[in-house]
């Protein structure tokens, strides 16, 4: 049985609060407006990680990693996690320019832990993401949250594949 987001939150929140480290996203990302109803499949290492259907106002992020994975981000999260008012145009010959992507600097911080073998077995291979789709999880991946309430309570758990995490995050200074 796949753990719900709430079950995952209840299991991981105490670990993040006790053992989590603070990270900052340093890698820029290519971002564009999503078309409502657009389905974005996140693929890393040739393996489907999750999928999500865009709603009105959502953004598509194309990560600047080896896999160039894409995922959906709510507009509010985009504005919170990127310098949304300072996009950089892509060179005319960039393959994604015609799709409407622009380059943005991140402003995201998160608390994260690396998934141990023991922790990975508690998931049985996946958990339910906040957007209602299964998300795979394996030893070596990172479980993170940058979504906190005003009092600092962790509100959501996401999983970031190890390679993607290392290519885009560093310990916060």
Question: Explain this structure to me?
Answer:
This protein has 173 residues and is of the alpha+beta class. The protein folds into two domains: 1-26 and 109-173, no CATH class; 28-105, no CATH class. 20% of the residues lie in helices and 33% in strands. The chain contains four helices and 13 strands. The strands form four sheets. A five-stranded antiparallel β-sheet has the order 12-11-8-1-13. Strands 6-5-2-7 form a four-stranded antiparallel β-sheet. Strand 5 (59-63) and strand 6 (70-73) form a beta hairpin. The model has no long low-confidence stretch (mean pLDDT 93).
Notable traits:
173 residues, alpha+beta, 2 domains, four-stranded antiparallel β-sheet
Task: Briefly characterize the structure.
With 173 residues, this protein is of the alpha+beta class.
Task: Explain the layout of strands and helices.
Layout: H1 5-19, E1 21-25, E2 29-33, E3 39-44, E4 47-53, E5 59-63, E6 70-73, H2 75-81, E7 102-104, E8 109-114, H3 117-121, E9 126-128, E10 134-136, E11 142-145, E12 158-160, H4 162-168, E13 169-171
Antiparallel strand pairs: 1-8, 1-13, 2-5, 2-7, 3-4, 5-6, 8-11, 9-10, 11-12
Low-confidence stretches: none
How many separate helices?
4
| Distance N to C terminus | 39 Å
| Number of DSSP-assigned strands | 13
Overall 3D shape? globular
């Amino acid at each position: 049985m796949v753990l719900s987001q709430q079950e995952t939150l209840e299991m991981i929140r105490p670990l993040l609060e006790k053992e989590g480290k603070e990270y900052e996203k340093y890698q820029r990302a290519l971002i564009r407006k999503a078309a409502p109803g657009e389905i974005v499949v996140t693929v890393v290492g040739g393996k489907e990680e999750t999928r999500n259907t865009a709603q009105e106002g959502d953004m598509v992020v194309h990560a600047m990693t080896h896999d160039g994975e894409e995922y959906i981000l709510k507009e509010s999260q985009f504005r919170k996690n990127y310098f949304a008012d300072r996009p950089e145009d892509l060179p005319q010959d960039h393959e994604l320019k015609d799709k409407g992507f622009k380059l943005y600097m991140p402003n995201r911080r998160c608390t994260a832990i690396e998934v141990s073998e023991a922790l990975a077995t508690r998931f049985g291979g996946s958990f339910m993401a906040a957007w209602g789709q299964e998300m795979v999880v394996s030893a070596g991946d990172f479980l993170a949250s940058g979504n906190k309430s005003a009092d600092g309570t962790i509100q959501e758990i996401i999983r970031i594949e190890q390679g993607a995490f290392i290519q885009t995050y560093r310990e916060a200074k």
